[in-house]
Amino acid sequence: MLSAVVVLITLLAVGVLVTSAVDRGEGERRYPWHTDIVATTFWVGEEFDPTAEDGSQSISTYDDAWLLSYGGCDGVIEDGVCRTERRSAANGWFPTSMNPLQNPFYLDLPFDDVNDPRAAAMRAEVVPWADEEPYASMLDDPDTSIMKDRWVELRRGGRTCFGQVEDAGPGRYDDARYVFGSRDARPTNGRFNGAGMDVSPAINGCLGFTELNGEDDRVDWRFVDEQDVPEGPWTRLVTTTPPQADSTSPDPYRREVRVRPGAGRARRGSGGRRARPGPPRSPEGRDGPRRH
Q1: Residue 269 CA to chain centroid, in angstroms?
Q2: For position 19, what pLDDT does the model report?
Q3: What are the backbone angles phi and psi of residue 224, rounded to the nearest 5°?
Q4: How confident is the model at residue 57 (pLDDT cuts 50, 70, 90)?
């Protein structure tokens, strides 16, 4: 009872109610748009700050072997450093120097429902799909995210692209008002020009960002259910996570990637272990100048 009261007080404090996050009508779920949001760019294998605990994109908050699971540096290696690169529509915005094992259209949002205690405590109340299967059955497992692999629609100018949530950030990890609210709240993160998400090089190219790795491009975004995601380069490889770890499998944290019909042969990533709960992050993220 006490824990329920604490969660209710937290929800009132952040100003988020599930009923205000989505509108249901004629069998369709409509998620609210978040407009004019600064989006910075990150990539698997990036070393943003080697001295910071969360300064490497070799791991994500949901996969501490992200680099391995993805298949390597999502860019080009120059002098032993994984760097980003400009992408082209000619190959669907995919990387030019490697073949990814997971969807190159990925992003993060500042709500970590696995490793941030505050976000984890409120996820059942604020995440709009938390009461649906298979997510409802996953709520009792603190090591399983109901955010990972969810789809997001992004638009910039006249372009629209789609991507999957594969990490948490930037800067904050429990920003429920911004991520799930229906009033177009601003991100509480104050760093990196107030960025409200990081996007991958594929999304950067697909949306026609003016900067390869800057802090000035802005997007509109909203969640979207998988069945409402149109075919496109973002569906050539779709990253999925088993609803529950299979303890009888040689690798219970195996990640799978499926390819939609007509897109070629399915590929399977070897996966790593999910990130385990660690020390709570500070309100502005862990120590070090990390945008993510």
Answers
A1: 18
A2: 35
A3: -145, 140
A4: confident
If 0-12 CB within 10 Å is exposed, 13-18 middle and 19+ buried, where does residue 232 land?
middle
Structure tokens at 236: 């050539």
The enclosing H or E element of 145 equals none
The pLDDT of 20-26, averaged and rounded, is: 41
Percent of the chain with pLDDT over 90: 66
Residues near 138 by Cβ (< 8 Å), separated by ≥ 6? Answer: 144, 146, 243, 244
Runs of H (alpha helix) within 15-107: 18-21, 66-70
E runs forming strands in 84-129: 106-109
| pLDDT tens digits for range 71-109 | 999 999 999 999 999 999 999 999 999 999 999 999 999
The three-class DSSP label of residue 21 is helix
Tokens representing 126 are 């604020």
DSSP label of 219: E
Please check whether residue 70 is in contact with residue 271, taking contact to mean a CB–CB distance below 8 angstroms: no
Provide the b/e sequence for 92-120 (b: ≥16 CB within 10 Å).
bbbbeebebbbbbbbbbbbbbbbbbebbb
Q: Do the Cβ atoms of 274 and 143 come closer than 8 Å? A: yes
Q: What is d(CA 215, CA 193) in angstroms, rounded to the nearest whole number? A: 6
Question: Residue 5: which H helix or E strand, with range?
Answer: helix 2-14
Closest by CA to 108, choosing from 49, 173, 178, 194, is 173
Residue 180: C-alpha distances to residues 15, 41, 59, 185 (Å): 10, 22, 25, 9
Cα-Cα end-to-end distance for the chain? 35
Question: How far apart, in whole angstroms, are the C-alpha atoms of residue 37 and residue 40?
Answer: 10
pTM value is: 0.77
